[in-house]
Amino acid sequence: MRNFSPEDWKTSIRRFLLGLDAWVDFSIFRSASGARETYERFSTFMDRFHVSGWRRWLNELASEGATLGAVGMVAMLALAVPAFRETSDDDWLKKSELG
Predict the structure, then answer these.
(1) Is the pTM of this model over 0.85?
(2) Which residues, in sequence order, are CB contacts of 89 under 8 Å at separation 6+?
(3) Taking CA atoms, which of 19, 32, 89, 98 is between 20 and 30 Å from 1?
(4) Are 58 and 40 members of one domain?
């Protein structure tokens, strides 16, 4: 078994930490490169769907209509929940408070 002196421990720890730092730096660099390449591929793919002129206005109008329709449906459902609760009983037609 080797007997390490405090200087050997310091050197070993420094080398380990330097290697760990290099590994972390390289991993971050590699993931940033991968993210950049992925974004470039996505951007190139999305360029296929570029719409201009009257088609863009039609697309915007349809999009706004769909958004407002979805908001309207959520609002109508929120307003209908009390009626759903009131009529959840089996004998809701016999209640005199409904009339």
Answers:
(1) no
(2) 95
(3) 19
(4) no
